[in-house]
DNA sequence: GTCTATAACTCGATAGAC
DNA sequence: GTCTATCGAGTTATAGAC
C-alpha cells in the first residue's frame, strides 16, 4: 500500500524517464492512477513543483542505495556502477537526471538547477572515495569521466535496445 | 544565402538540440524564419518527416567532418573526440542524437530507429579504426565506451554549464 | 481529497485562396 | 511557395461544489 502522492511520484518518474518532461501530462498521470488531473494539482500546484519533488526524491534514494552498496562491496567505484546498472535494468529507463539534464533549458530553471546539484553531488561522492594518493584535481577528473560514461551508457543502451551495451561500456571504468 | 529548407533545418536542429523534440513547435520554428507554420508543413508534411530529415543530415555532416578530421590528424580516436568537442562548444548544445536518444520511445519509432543507426555507425567506425591486434569484440567494447563517454560528457557539461567538464571526461579516452 | 467544469492557451495538421 | 483561417485535440491551471 502506498499513498496517492507516492503513486503519483512513481508514475511521473517512470513516464518522465521514459519519454521526457514535456511528453508527460497531468491528465495522463491522473488517468494512470484512476483520478482526475485536478487532483494532481492538489498535491503539486504546478508541474514544476512535481518535477522538483521528483529530482529531490530521486537523489535521496540514489545516495541511500549507493551508501548501502558501497559498504556491502567495499569498492566504491563498483558500487556506483552497480547502482547505475540497476537503475537501468530494473526499469529499462535512463536516469531521471540524465533525461532532465539533456532537456537542458527546455525545463524550468529551478528544476535544471536541482539536476545539476545531483550531478555535482555524484561527482563529489566518487572523487572523495578515490585513493588520496591521487591529486584532488585528478580525482575530480576521473569522477567526471565515470559519471559521463555511465550516463551516456544508459542512453546508448536504451537507444540500441541492449542492456549489454551498458555493461561493456562501463567495464572500462574498472581498468 | 541559404534556402528556406536549409534555414528550417538549421533552426530546428538548434532548437531540438537545446530543448528536445517535444519542446519545439512548427509555429515557433516558422516565427524564427519570419514565415507561417503552414509553410513549414509545405516542406515537411509531418513533424516526424522533419525529424528524420534532421537526423539524416546530421549523420551525413558528422561523418563527413569526421573523415576529414581523421585524415588530418592521423589519430582516429582524437578525431572523434575533436568532432564531438566542436559539436558541443560551437553551439553549447548536446548532440542531436543524444537528445533524441534520451527521449527514447517518446518520439516516433521511425525517428528513434534512425537515431539508433547513427549510434551503431558511430560505434562501427571507431571499432574499425582501432588496432587490429585487439580482438573484434574488444574493439567493439572500447568503441561503445568511447561513444557513451562522449555523449554523457556533452550532457554533463551542458547541465553543469562548463565545457571543461567535457574535456576532462574525454581525456581518459586517450589513456 | 476528489470531483466537474472551464478558462486560456498551444499543438499538429489541413483546406483553399493567391 | 506562402498565406489566412480553422479544426480538433492537447496542454497547464483554477474555481468552486461535494
Report on the architecture of this protein.
Two copies of one chain form a homodimer. The model of chain A has no long low-confidence stretch (mean pLDDT about 100). The first copy, chain A, has a single domain (about 50-175), classed as Tetracycline Repressor, domain 2, CATH 1.10.357.10. In chain A, α1 (about 5-20) crosses α2 (about 25-35). Helix content of chain A is about 75%, strand content about 0%. Chain A contains nine helices and no strands. The longest helix of chain A is centred in the middle third of the chain and has 27 residues, at about 45-75. Chain A has helices spanning about 5-20, 25-35, 35-45, 45-75, 75-90, 95-105, 110-130, 135-160, 165-170. By secondary structure, chain A is mainly alpha-helical. The N and C termini of chain A lie far apart (about 45 Å). At the A-B interface, α6, α7, α8 and α9 of A face α6, α7, α8 and α9 of B. The first copy, chain A, binds a DNA duplex (18 and 18 nucleotides) through α3.
Q: H/E series of chain A, N to C?
A: HHHHHHHHH
CATH class of chain A: Mainly Alpha
* Biggest interface, residues from each chain: A-B, 47 and 47 residues
* Helical fraction of chain A: over 70%
Biggest sheet features of chain A = none
Amino acid at each position: 500500500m502506498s499513498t496517492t502522492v507516492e503513486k503519483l511520484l512513481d508514475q511521473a518518474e517512470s513516464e518522465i524517464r521514459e519519454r521526457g518532461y514535456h511528453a508527460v501530462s497531468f491528465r495522463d498521470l491522473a488517468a494512470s492512477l484512476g483520478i482526475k488531473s485536478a487532483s494532481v494539482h492538489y498535491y503539486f500546484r504546478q508541474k514544476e513543483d512535481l518535477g522538483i519533488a521528483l529530482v529531490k526524491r530521486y537523489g535521496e534514494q540514489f545516495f541511500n542505495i549507493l551508501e548501502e552498496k558501497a559498504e556491502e562491496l567495499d569498492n566504491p567505484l563498483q558500487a556506483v556502477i552497480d547502482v547505475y546498472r540497476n537503475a537501468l535494468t530494473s526499469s529499462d529507463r535512463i536516469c531521471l537526471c540524465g533525461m532532465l539534464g539533456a532537456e537542458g533549458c527546455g525545463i524550468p530553471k529551478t528544476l535544471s538547477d536541482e539536476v545539476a546539484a545531483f550531478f555535482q553531488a555524484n561527482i563529489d561522492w566518487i572523487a572523495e572515495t578515490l585513493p588520496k594518493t591521487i591529486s584532488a584535481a585528478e580525482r575530480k577528473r576521473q569522477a567526471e569521466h565515470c559519471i559521463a560514461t555511465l550516463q551516456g551508457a544508459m542512453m546508448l543502451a536504451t537507444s540500441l535496445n541492449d542492456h549489454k551495451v551498458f555493461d561493456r561500456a562501463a567495464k572500462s571504468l574498472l581498468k
